Amino acid sequence: MRRYAPFIVIGISLLTMACGSLGRLVSEAVPTPEVIIITATPQKTADQEVSLQLTETTVPVDVAPPADTTAATTEPAPASIGESTLVAVQSRGVLNCGVNADLPGFGFYDAVRKRWSGFDVDFCRVIAAAVLGDANKVEYIPVITSEGPNERFTAVRSHLVDVVIRNTTWTASRDGAGLMFGPTTFHDGQTFLVTKKSGIKTLADLRDKRICASAGTTSLINLRDDFAARGITFESVEIKGENILYQGYLDGKCDAVTSDSSQLAVQRVNFPKPEDHIILGDRISREPLGPVIAEGDDQWYDIVSWSVYATMYAEELRVDRSNVDEMLTTSKDPRVLRLLGAEGKIGTQFGLAPDFGYQIVSQVGNYGDIYNANLGPTTIFNIDRGPNKAWNLGGGGVLASPPFR
User: Residues 153-195: pLDDT tens digits?
Assistant: First the structure.
């Protein structure tokens, strides 16, 4: 979906820049921790439709402050108003990529080693390899889900970042709010994390229980919609600040915590006793996660999209980081040669070098390389790929790229 909203973008950009430094870090933007307890009770209307009656109460949260990420990044240079994103990135010589700083496996800043890592972080590197020819030319900007200049969608619309790749769900309302979503990089689903001793094994067991969810996310909407449809009463504990969500759960402020299954799996690994907690098998939603950019720049949309597709297409064709140089010189498959830039000029139509696909695979890898390096069986997370497999490699995978021709 491509739409143009230049006046909205300009207005938001000016307003955001007037608010002060655009390079403010996540640690400066996190509000005072608090919990909003919302009691949700399904009510039947005259036509027997089920709706939720919500009662809201705000209480303080006694938890530790978020981890310090002040050394994570320097103040970025945003794109100028009216300037194409490609020109801005190439002139700047670095990609400003909005990421999560506190979710190991997806986006994490190691303050000791001063190093970024994760599945989403690597997709920032994919775009940098395509646009700049160097996967390391990335400025990682921590963005958050709560209010502030570093709120992820505000950061995109104001051009503080060129793209956000931060476990963000593609929805209709978001797509129509000055944003465009690239290809889904991770197919996820929302579920619940509970303690073994709670005895909770199914969704029905969550009736009248307290459920923690992160404020400002689709998790709350999914929770209310699904439980209203099922007629399950519950108490929603809305916590502002993802970094304190799980501590609230561990402190007993709720009986369960809900989020994407991958996020729950990653967080559980870091619990003092991971074996004391289980993830329910039920799913209440499908969550397509992927890159987000500002509306109005079709060229940049194509660049982000085809950079992601290159990783998927490479895996379809069995081209990976270990064999890409050999495939470039010996392959007779015209699909492989077009992907790697040995034939055709696909990259030039986007403003990229013909070999942008080769740069991506040789420097970062194909989709499977990226997944296995961050979430696969050799990592502490060992998250099954499920639908996140190439469509032609078996196992129920749904990942597919349009052909490079």
Answer: 999 999 999 999 999 999 999 998 899 999 999 999 999 999 9
- In the block, residue with structure tokens 């597709």: 309
| Residue environment code for 259-287, b if the CB has 16+ CB neighbours within 10 A, otherwise e | bbbbbbbbbbeeeeeeeebbebeebbbeb
Quick one: pLDDT at residue 177?
A: 85
% of the chain at pLDDT higher than 90:
73
Please name each of the domains of the chain with its CATH number.
6-28+68-186 (3.40.190.10), 35-65+193-264 (3.40.190.10), 297-374 (no CATH)
* Distance of alpha carbon 93 from alpha carbon 162, whole angstroms: 13
Distance from chain centroid for Cα 354: 28
Tell me the pLDDT tens digit for each residue of 209-237.
999 999 878 899 999 999 999 999 999 99
- The pLDDT value recorded for residue 56 is 47
User: Quick count: other Cβ atoms within 10 Å of Cβ 27?
Assistant: 18
User: Is the model's pLDDT at 29 over the cut of 50?
Assistant: no
SS (H, E, C) the chain: CCCCCHHHHHHHHHHHHHCCCCCCCHHHHCCCCEEEEEEEEEEECCCCCEEEEEEEEEEECCCCCCCCCCCCCCCCCCCCCCCCHHHHHHHHCCEEEEECCEECCCEEEECCCCEEECHHHHHHHHHHHHHHCCCCCEEEEECECCCCCCEHHHHHHCCCCCEECCCCECCHHHHCCCEEECCCCEEEEEEEEEEHHHCCCCHHHHCCCEEEEECCCHHHHHHHHHHHHHCCCEEEEEECCHHHHHHHHHCCCCCEEEEEHHHHHHHHHCCCCHHHEEECCCCCEEEEECCEEECCCHHHHHHHHHHHHHHHHHHHCCCCCCCHHHHHHHCCCHHHHHHHCCCCCCHHHHCCCCCHHHHHHHHCCCHHHHHHHHCCCCCCCCCCCCCCCECCCCCCCCECCCCCC
If pLDDT is split at 50, 70 and 90, which confidence band does 7 have?
Answer: very low
The predicted pLDDT at position 30 comes to: 36
Task: Say if residue 64's pLDDT is above 70.
Answer: no
